[in-house]
Batch of 3 targets.
Target 1
Amino acid sequence: MNTQDVPSSRSSLKLVIAVLIDLIGVMSYLIPSFGELFDAFWAPLSALLVFLLFGKKLSWASFTFIEELFPFTDLIPSATLAWYFQYGRSKGVKNRKEIK
């Protein structure tokens, strides 16, 4: 493994974790009466995971907390969006600069 692969594999691992965080949040829809109770438990935990996963950014953690806590917003993939804004968008900007 060379040093250029390390950031790529680290960001890929973070993407997998982010998708898992979002999938766990959506699972509350599987059990209708249990869902809101699960969301109350999962909201602070998912916010903490996003906070630790993405460089202690309080804005994404807060967004994840609110998204998980409010009803009918679980379909928003907040952890995956946090990954995109940290890794995906910046990678696209670098590629556009190389083309010019």
Target 2
Amino acid sequence: MVTIVIISTMKRSRKAQKLLNKSGNGVCEICNEPNFLVEHHIRGRKITNPNSSSNIANICSNCHTRVHHGIVVVENRHLTTDGYILIWHYYKDKSITNEDAKPYLL
């Protein structure tokens, strides 16, 4: 069984999104819970333009830990007519786009 989970779109500017994250009024792109968010670099920080909105996932600290422990796999961010969407799945599920990011595991 494949679980497809697509949550949230990014229509805000990067500056506005950072302010929402710091205020605690943002919504985690994985668990969809309102929380204080951290920025997860999907493809890491050593790529060209690592802070572009297509490489940043705004997720809560719990989900961030799950990503770095390999429980949640962030595949990529894809541009749609509604903005960027984050594609992810649980480690036991099959990849949706075959573009799994390889995060630094703690």
Target 3
Amino acid sequence: MSDSEHGQESTTQVWRAVLVTGLLTLSFTFSFMDRQILPLLLEPVRHAFSMSDTQIGMLQGLAFSTFYACAAIPLGWMVDRYHRVGIAAVCVAAWGVATAACGLCASYGQLLVARTGTAIGEAGCSPASWSILSDLLSGRALLRATAVYNCGPYLGGGMALILGSIALRYFTGIGGLTLPFAGHIEAWQAVFIVVGLPGLILGALILTLREPKRRDPGVLDVDISTRATLKVLFGCSQLMFFFAGSLFVTSGFYILLTWFPSLMIREGFGTASTIGRPLGVLFLAVGLASCFLSQFLVRKLDNRDLLSPLLKRLAIVLAIQIPLALAFALVDTATAAYWFYACEIATFAAFTTFMGSPIQLIVPNRMRGRVTGLYLLSNNVLGATLGPAAVGALSDRMKGNQHGLEIAFVTMICVSGICATVLIYLSSTRRTTANRIDSSHADLALENS
């Protein structure tokens, strides 16, 4: 091959990597946008269906996180065996339709079912995306692409709050929306529809991507069964402590995302239409800035021992949340509340930037989908489900206290922060003992990173 041909091929591969990373990041962005539009709309939804705080916690927990986690297991199994691009495209279109369906619900039960559909659609996004990126790229390029992909929650969450508040204000001003067959719908219902339908277009775009070839040296001679996958996972204490710590990080993250808008409204710091834009700007700007600055956490680390020192530094970052949460009990102005929110987002973003790295560096190719599914299961069933639900239940037990939600919020954020810090630190003290099938690929990634 001539130098010019080699250069053209190299340029083509770079542009292909950029395109794939961009579309997958956009899918993660829209998934989080669809996911986080509900917290902004909680108060009008709560009044429309006369929901209690416990029911709100169940809506964000049982209806979404539990089904999201359970669906991740079979979808992860499919990712390890079948066409990953097709799985990602179908999932994106499915959650878009389900989100739009939330806007047509006429009861709490229907909304519960629609949120379940949203969760099942979104569950295939990360297993397919992490697997695709791991086969398309290696070394430092893989770490960069993963970091870009993990910006999705902050892009999506910020857009949900900013665009959601603008759309809510607009549709409130015109008195809702009238649709063919559906008739007149309220402003909050119109927001769900506007946010959900673009998923159909994004799903079609992802379907045009080419499936990357799997990197599996000697795959025909090794056991890639689910039993072998579980053996690899449970045989690695570093991964197990990381999984346990991550679920408490997820718990704190979803407590913040689910309850903070309602907390600001109840404490008199604003309304749903006024707090959405500043919260969205903070979520977007601080989240992205923290994702970028967190790259300094891997500077001057030994490439042969990258993961453990990184986890130790992440544990220190997570520990900052504890005094922050305690200080929030003294907050009495909207400005101070926004500062607290920004600091919390910064610490969570630093961790989530690297949350896929242990799986990508340790777990063999044909097992990553299922291990990612298990990771999502532990995070969402025990983290994203129990955390918001616990705040709602604790708040309902203190109905006589006008600051009951604030007390419940601070308590559960502190508990999650302490547990996350301790477990991630314990993970950093371990060394990887998992049996790697594609060790040559992992070693190459470490050498080039």
